[in-house]
């Protein structure tokens, strides 16, 4: 019988780092977690007049729910997190520019002497039943509907080497990868660095363009269901994702080509292993059927995924069918609810 | 009556630069060009024993067909090139590693002291009728079929500022962008830098993964049909593409984030103009529905596209319907052939 | 009367992070600290047969001495650390290549499929009295003497935002900047992020080339004397250095141009402030007399300094003469010892 | 008897590319060339009211004097150019910001949506006899004297592969490296790509900071004397410099770390060859005594040099004493003039 644990943190229970924090819950492998997450602004930006630089207080940005300790997860193992469901918690969501943050502005590191862009907030209408959101221009009457495609920008485990990282940072422990691929139906794999893995989750987006060019997606509080499990004795050196159709590896680094290299390198060696291919044969194969969806080009590290359809790999199975098993559990949960 | 010009160059007519060369043909705007192009190896790599570093002679790599002078195209105008058809000319194609070339190896600029990767050639079977190609591993019996998705890695015009560039370089004049988006059905727009524009085309791929991680796609000679036309008085500062569904801008630069920035910047300002949006409103809109397919992460500049579905832009029309008109001409040509 | 505190940690007292650790000592502003530091290998590489990848245990690398709590240092203040003396503790020092670490090799992030470089150790003779060290080639009889120029690769304070970072990382809190400019005679300024600042120090080098191209300097345990003091109510957003002749700002980021931008941006605004110049006037001035010594091109962030001779700034004084005061204290200490 | 050729081009004789142009003179190896060069603005910016974006006409920027055909220089050889003397031709010089050009501003490739920096011109007084120049702030009365340290930002030969490049581009053919190391007393080595090498020279600076952060040095027309000679059968893959004390290799690429890697890689292999060292031994040696002066962080490629004092190389002689011979010729010329 699958255990279901529900956890809806109060604002003061939210976390702002991966690592360096005590677990909020301890659960068994195989547990279904019903979680709520706040948006990246901590819910303080509620309309176009709530400028983030005014209403938010650094470093209380990008809160995550967790961390959750998963029993039996030890350094050297891999944590599997299947995303069952991601549902916006409100009928609105927000996005904004933010001074010196985003891809088309100078930043703290790409330091320029130019003045910052105007700080503007956009408020979206969210219609969960219809599966749509609506954009409204700020400086004209233009408005347009877009598909709702909920995802989590931030998910991961405690980092290695006694580190504690701001939730805004994506790296090999996961974190703020900001990839639209982290939607319901995906299983994410994270290498375990500390006992219990210490999984946390936040930064829901109703949808997001490739690269999150303005620095924010359509930011929303979420009600999210995940199933956590543990793969013993195998370590995912960088986050990996699996769907029914595809395998993916994440790379988070600067410059952007290094994020690309990391992700392609991991997927080449992973698929070589899964399909029994020589490394250069896998390199060639990926070179022709591999995809490279960009996650973010605005965070402290940039994130790119390497992605390949399983059908090109001759029936290879990752992690002994973990994704398929969690998928079945998810279906049972959803149909019995 | 649309004029059709057929040009099938002999090997010694091929060109190795954009710029610095006399036109091979002069045609009127609206002309349909039936062209043949050689593969990036000049057709010298015909099997797994033909190592590129042995059979090819630098700098006679990546030949292009052209340049073609288009009458009336003047600096400050934009050349429109609609890709009607791209058909592999042979029943095989090749790909390879190449010493110190590709994304997962040190290179001439990312200089390391490590030895190069093994140089290997893969020969693909090409079945145009079935719309498939077949990959064969070199170091095992693994084999798999992939969809044929023909594209041109290299297309562009003579650069500005009296420059002449190797065909392997992508930049604002086009060149070796190596993006899978340059397939049949697309209209490419290139800013005109010299009288006649001097359009050239080459480097056909039967298909290619995002980023062309090994440094080569599935390289093939092609029989390609394009229609060329001129947009007077408007200058595309970087290559743009249009399909029935989407608009795209290309950015070619290093590091990869700059290619991303260039492409997003051009698409933001272009869509702001087309949809009558304020720049920051367009930035926000693109931030949520924009895509960023990676072209190459191996050439002298890396290439990323910014892409948006037209349906989000409120019925905006680019270049006064040029794409739709060329599309109609293409359909007439194909149905009357 | 200046207080002198001596602290020579045992191996198990060493620290491997900035942040996330209790102070080993608490001292008053103005205290002279006599410290000993271990080398980056924790003293385990003692000769050419001690391969780091064999004798060292990740993540117990690059140990630092500390952290030291400085009373009265509060977030928003700046910690001043004057380096009085840095003396090698042994008559030998070591350097090495390390698999996938260094500037002329693929790395974890600049991921390639090539095999790693050979792992080799070089052992240097250190003659403190003569002020020289001696290099011996490993694969020939070549040998040459070099000036001893002792420095600390790693120095800094606890980071902001509840973070804890591996000591190998340089960032705005300091850390592993690996710049030869951090030698005796310099005053380093670090913005204070947590109460007490939590200063730590390690990674002594007998000398180092620009960029630390192989990934290691001439690594040595050191006996080092520093004076710590606090500047209230001013926050150095990135580490700054001052000598009798020069002012410097450090930038640590990737790609390397961003490290350059950060450092130049900080020095432009700092010198504008000190010399009463308009920002663009300071930009122009730095553009002609500014220097940009490269620290490292091998660590998780790369480090570049921006440097300007004070004589170009019209007699401006940084931090109300802090450097001059500490310099005097240092001279008194050295002459009375 | 050494031949002396004087060439002072009229404005319409200036060149704006390396490659793609007929030689203006043909000379024998060993010839002393007395040249005049215009400043990067073509002499059109003469005071603070002459804004470059108004008075200059793209692409007629950064003119060079030449190209000069050197008899007997064949592809695969190396051209040696000894800089005997670089003397400012006027008693003033200028520098400026330029919209979207420079290191602390968004650019064409680091594309941002922010407005450009103000365009300002600074006019320097030049006192050749005193060996000084004088800076005057634009927005205050601040003024300061700086040493005159004349150099050429742009020098090189025709590129390979039928290319023609704007003079503003630095690459393996030389070009706009913008390094202060290219001053009188240095011998520059350029690999020859086309018959006669086609050497050209321009972009004099009275001095320049590391990285040319504002995008321009103290720009001046120059009267410059060089001696050209040919090293048969050896090819410098990237520009190299030699002084009485040092050897240097130039790397020009993006991102900046690749410029660093290229330069260090070339210097490692060059010094290994000169000193009879194993490659890793040379890598280690450079790692401790190598310098890395930054040239520019603003041009289409960024430039970094790798530099080592000859005294660490055990008496090795580059190119069979070419530098020493040209040095002697230079001394004779200067003393007999």
The CATH first-level class of chain A comes to: Mainly Beta
Give the largest interface.
Answer: A-B, 60 and 60 residues
User: Which structural class fits the helix and strand makeup of chain A?
Assistant: alpha+beta
Say how many strands of chain A there are. Answer: 21
- The end-to-end span of chain A amounts to 14 Å
Helix content of chain A: 10-25%
Whole-number radius of gyration of chain A?
Answer: 19 Å
CATH architectural designation of chain A = Sandwich
Residue share in β-strands of chain A: 25-35%
Please give the domain count of chain A: 1
Oligomer: homotetramer
Name the CATH superfamily classification of chain A.
Acetamidase/Formamidase-like domains
> Tally the helices of chain A: what do you get?
4
Average pLDDT reading of chain A: 97
Major sheet attributes of chain A: 9 strands, mixed
**What is the CATH third-level topology name of chain A?**
Jelly Rolls
One letter per element, helices H and strands E, the order of chain A comes to EEEEHEEEEEEEEEEEEEEEHHEEH
Uncertain regions spanning at least 5 consecutive residues of chain A: none
Shape of chain A: globular
Strand order of the largest sheet of chain A: 1-4-17-6-15-18-19-21-20
Can you tell me about this structure?
Four copies of one chain form a homotetramer. Chain A is an alpha+beta fold and 337 residues long. Chain A has four helices and 21 strands. The first copy, chain A, has a single domain, classed as Acetamidase/Formamidase-like domains (Jelly Rolls). The first copy, chain A, has helices at residues 52-55, 256-275, 279-289, 322-336, and strands at residues 4-7, 17-18, 25-27, 32-37, 64-70, 78-88, 92-96, 121-127, 132-136, 143-147, 151-156, 165-166, 170-171, 174-175, 187-191, 199-205, 222-231, 240-242, 246-253, 294-296, 302-309. Chain A has a nine-stranded mixed beta sheet with strand order 1-4-17-6-15-18-19-21-20. In chain A, strands 3-5-16-11-14-13 form a six-stranded mixed beta sheet, with no helix packed on it. In chain A, strand 20 and strand 21 form a beta hairpin. Chains in contact: A-B, A-C, A-D, B-C, B-D, C-D. Chains A and B meet through helix 2 and helix 3 of A and helix 2 and helix 3 of B.
